[in-house]
Amino acid sequence: RKEVEQDPGPFNVPEGATVAFNCTYSNSASQSFFWYRQDCRKEPKLLMSVYSSGNEDGRFTAQLNRASQYISLLIRDSKLSDSATYLCAVELNNDMRFGAGTRLTVKP
Amino acid sequence: EAGVAQSPRYKIIEKRQSVAFWCNPISGHATLYWYQQILGQGPKLLIQFQNNGVVDDSQLPKDRFSAERLKGVDSTLKIQPAKLEDSAVYLCASSLDLTNEQFFGPGTRLTVL
Hints:
heterodimer, A: 108 residues, mainly beta, six-stranded mixed beta sheet, five-stranded antiparallel beta sheet, 11 strands, 0% helix, globular, B: 113 residues, seven-stranded mixed beta sheet, four-stranded antiparallel beta sheet
């Protein structure tokens, strides 16, 4: 089993849609969780950290389910500018492991 | 505030040649990371420095890859000799400390022919 797994997609959604991605991790001792956004041919940029209680930033909501070992990212009211690859990252003992990313395309 | 700087941005070499990449982290960031990102995959950590000491290099192919951060600031990553499968984007990232947010540089896109 891979350390961090994501559905590669692509997810093609219309503007205004709600879309959700999941990311599963294999090590139950993992300590910190993040979602990064990566535009085509650009570097990853931190979108949000994922806290145990869940967190929300505008149209974006991240949640952690430790029992089932996955994190999720929900995007509401999708915009064209949300088109990107979304990478999840899991940290264990100061060692970050990234998923392969989920590609999202928002269409007019 | 200046971000993480990397050079060159692009490099094309033939297999068995050597290549070196340079990274200048954000000022004051103690932790520096080198990642390899192959097309269609997530970044894979190669090596992690805390100041000028290596924290983790378990995924670095040490027979051909080497990295240093002599003065605890800039870092270089070298591949010698390069193989076709080394074609990838090499990303440098830095963070204030081990548990803080990582900021990525623009990467160096390496093509090995």
